[in-house]
Amino acid sequence: MSIVRNNPLKFVAVLSAAVVMASCSADKQPDSASQSPTQAASPSVAPAAKPIEALKGLKIVAYGPSATKAGEAFNTQPDGASAVWAKSDRNLEGYDAAIWLDGVRLGNAGISTETVTGTLPAGETLRAGAVKLEIRIGQNGELLSSEPVSIAVE
After folding, report:
1. CATH T-level topology, domain 52-153
2. What are the distances in angstroms from CA 79 to CA 58, 64, 98, 99, 121?
3. Strand partners, 120
4. How far is 58 from 92, CA to CA, in rounded Å?
5. What is the DSSP code (8-state) at residue 15?
6. What percent of the chain has pLDDT over 70?
7. CB-based contact 154:72 (threshold 8 Å)
8. Where are the domains of the chain?
9. In which region does residue 15 sit, left (phi positive, over 0), alpha (psi from -120 to 50) or beta (all else)?
């Protein structure tokens, strides 16, 4: 005995429900014909890049520390790292922004609206003199740099 012979309406209802559930499934892969060339090349689609032109003339309006002592940790974090932060004159969310000290990108970059943070690993300290601090955009800081400010290291 088949389900079709016993109750054709029940079969249609069950089949319809299965089709609807399958079309709503999160695991469904889009048809390659309906994908754009960008989507077809990569399984995950990155958000559209924000225009770099919007950041031209980027300025640091506040930062910390503004002064510290050579050979000593500063703004010490629980893991022993020294933290640096800089606030820009515009929103940086959606950009690959990071703090750079004397041409070296700091680790643990974090961005919250206009503020960017980074850390020097535990055990690393700054040398005496003026240390150039910049916010740079791009994995290698190649897209754009803010106007530099200096951390006074005594």
Report:
1. Immunoglobulin-like (2.60.40)
2. 31, 19, 20, 19, 9
3. 82
4. 10
5. H
6. 68
7. no
8. 3-41, 52-153
9. alpha
Token digits for 113?
A: 């609206």
Residue 119 phi/psi, 5-degree rounding, is: -135, 150
User: Residues 50-107: pLDDT tens digits?
Assistant: 788 889 999 999 999 999 999 999 999 999 999 999 999 999 999 999 999 999 999 9
Residue 139's pLDDT band (cuts 50, 70, 90): confident
Cα–Cα distance between 50 and 89 in angstroms, integer? 17
Which has the closest alpha carbon to 72: 64, 63, 82? 82
- Answer whether 144's CB lies under 8 Å from 52's CB: yes
CA 76 to chain centre: 23
Q: What SS3 class is residue 81?
A: coil
Indicate the pTM of the whole model.
Answer: 0.67
* pLDDT in the model for residue 48: 53
**How many Å apart are CA 125 and CA 75, to the nearest integer?**
12
Distances (CA, A) of 39 to 26, 116, 120: 17, 31, 37
Check: CB of residue 23 under 8 Å from CB of residue 15.
Answer: no
Residue whose structure tokens are 């933290």: 83
What does the chain come to in residues? 154
